[in-house]
């Protein structure tokens, strides 16, 4: 049976993951599911973030569903770096896949934009760049302190994600790929990205390409989102533009993501783009839709394309029928009922 | 007499600068003005971007007005790095000041947002971080290529811009300062920024502070711009969020900026946020308003506060009276007429 590791994490993570699993149950694909209590609570109890033994166990699964990690009681960066990013790096999630799609019926903050204008996929690199954690500090706390961060980029790492993005563009009706970077300032890394896109493009004659600086792209997300079809970009720029993407597509409550290892040398991990939102945790206020859409991506990744479509369609129908003030579990119930064919 | 260096630059830079000077003339402050033909044309003619002798001459001015640099005929990054960024670094423009303000009558792409919601100032650091140009490449063009970029941050550099931002916040009614960074990933640099804000805050008891990760801040620019009053941020993050700021405040045609050396050890430089827009250059289509607002910032910086307000008010009135299809020079004429008291 397909083995699924579940990491609910912190804050609203546990609440939204419960709804994701409800929908997974309703869709009828059987999983052998194991829960892992990684996150702030375990960190406080044991000092551990991601023990080696757990990491090794996780490698044996077919996929991972993650809620959210992070809590104000833990020093900033600890859970992010030693748990979430460590999983992405250790499991070689070199594709961080983030659809930006406005569902009919969802209110976008962008005036005059509709579902036809906002329908793109961001392919964010997941294992390089400033996320490598390289850097240091000298004379900390003195007037002579120097702090550095290093962005590490390799031909190997850039080419594989660029190829993935071309494949993705090739599979979509518009077949258009935009590289987003900052080649005029990050000249070494930007040049590597630009040359790689140019070279790989020769293998995809049907795909048209263009380039935007990250500052201009961020602006166009707001003013002309229909310019974009598939975007390929660096880890940090992808982090920023996918949050703008979430904003224009109706908010962080709807933004799904997959940390994908396309070579399948380790399990891929699916998670909502939102964080643990400690301010609303435990109140049944979180929208589980992003997690449920992440479950759809998980199903698709595991070869259950029809079930993935059923979940997506149930979400689309649920959105059109939205009534305000539904609780987290009520939204999960409603979508699960639709998935099971009940409505 | 006050000495002003003018660098029209490339593309629409020359067109918008002409209108900026028209307005400066109309406001009645006399300047001794010298033009410098830096940009793509000079690069092609002589191979020079910013000769040392010109840089030394520029140091002798009281301020610089710049249009835009950059042209597709020049390899990406050359004019940006060796001219624009070189000026910012050599003249120690450690404050890159970018107001994000929605003028009444301007259409913002953000539904439901009005002038009361969008009124902030971004204080972008201008002389450090990934803009230092540090980095390198190994085995270029091979499958084993490695490209790095290094972000350099110092206590000296961070503290001075943070103090400036606190002063700015102190001078505004809301007295609120938000640090935007990515402390959970850029842990060394982020920690330096966060500690510095915390320490300097003790000297500004009236200013409230908060913190946003750059991804969340980018989202809030779209969904909740009224959260922000003054923002202080790193060079790269400031580049990105000020373009989102331009987008929500009605477009790049209205976004002004100052590259400020608050210690006045060298001239400050004022420029529209937009680029040289080669696609519309020479057609009289560019909106000179961003340059004219940059001229207002220049006047204010040089101690002509009343004249700065007059230019701002003329722009505000012009915006309310906008008729579509006006040419670049017509907009300049209309604003200059208002400034001169004619309307
Ligand atoms: C929590 C943080 C480390 C993470 C990131 O920066 O990638 C988050 O913002 C995301 O986008 O998944
Ligand atoms: C042209 C480029 C180097 C510049 C920057 O990145 O600072 C521009 O985008 C800006 O914001 O002034």
Automatic annotation (TrEMBL), chains A, B:
Its EC number is 1.1.1.85. Gene3D superfamilies: Isopropylmalate Dehydrogenase. Keywords: Manganese, Metal-binding, NAD, Oxidoreductase. It comes from the Bacteria. Transmembrane segments: none annotated. Pfam families: Iso_dh. SUPFAM superfamilies: Isocitrate/Isopropylmalate dehydrogenase-like (SSF53659). The keyword Oxidoreductase applies. It is an enzyme of class 1 (oxidoreductase). One of its GO terms (molecular function) is 3-isopropylmalate dehydrogenase activity. Its cofactor is Mn(2+); Mg(2+). Residues 3-335 form the Isopropylmalate dehydrogenase-like domain. This is 3-isopropylmalate dehydrogenase. It comes from Nonomuraea soli.
């Amino acid at each position: 049976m397909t083995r699924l590791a579940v990491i609910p994490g912190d804050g609203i993570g546990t609440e939204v993951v419960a709804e994701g699993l409800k929908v997974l149950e309703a869709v009828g694909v059987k999983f052998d599911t194991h829960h892992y209590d990684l996150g702030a609570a375990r960190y406080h109890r044991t000092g551990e973030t991601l023990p080696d033994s757990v990491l090794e166990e996780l490698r044996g699964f077919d996929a991972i569903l993650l809620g959210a990690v992070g809590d104000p009681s833990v020093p900033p960066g600890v859970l992010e770096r030693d748990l979430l990013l460590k999983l992405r790096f250790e499991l070689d999630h070199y594709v961080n896949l983030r659809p930006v799609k406005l569902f009919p019926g969802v209110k976008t903050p962008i005036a005059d934009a509709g579902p036809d204008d906002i329908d793109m996929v961001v392919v964010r690199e997941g294992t390089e760049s400033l996320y490598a954690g390289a850097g240091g500090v000298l004379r900390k706390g003195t007037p002579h302190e120097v702090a550095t961060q290093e962005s590490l980029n390799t031909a190997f790492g850039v080419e594989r994600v660029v190829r993935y993005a071309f494949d993705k563009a090739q599979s979509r009706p518009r077949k258009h790929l935009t590289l987003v970077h900052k080649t005029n300032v990050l000249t070494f890394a930007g040049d590597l990205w630009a040359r790689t896109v140019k070279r790989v493009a020769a293998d995809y004659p049907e795909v048209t390409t263009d380039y935007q600086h990250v500052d201009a792209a961020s602006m166009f997300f707001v003013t002309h989102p229909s310019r974009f079809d598939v975007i390929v970009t660096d880890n940090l720029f992808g982090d920023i533009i996918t949050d703008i993407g979430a904003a224009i597509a109706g908010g962080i409550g709807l933004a799904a993501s997959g940390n994908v290892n396309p070579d399948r040398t380790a399990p891929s991990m699916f998670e909502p783009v939102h964080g643990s939102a400690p301010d609303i945790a435990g109140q049944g206020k979180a929208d589980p839709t992003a997690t449920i859409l992440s479950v759809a991506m998980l199903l698709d990744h595991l070869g259950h394309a029809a079930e993935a479509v059923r979940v997506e369609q149930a979400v689309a129908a649920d959105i059109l029928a939205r009534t305000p003030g539904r609780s987290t579990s009520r939204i999960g119930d409603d979508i699960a009922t639709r998935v099971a064919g009940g409505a």
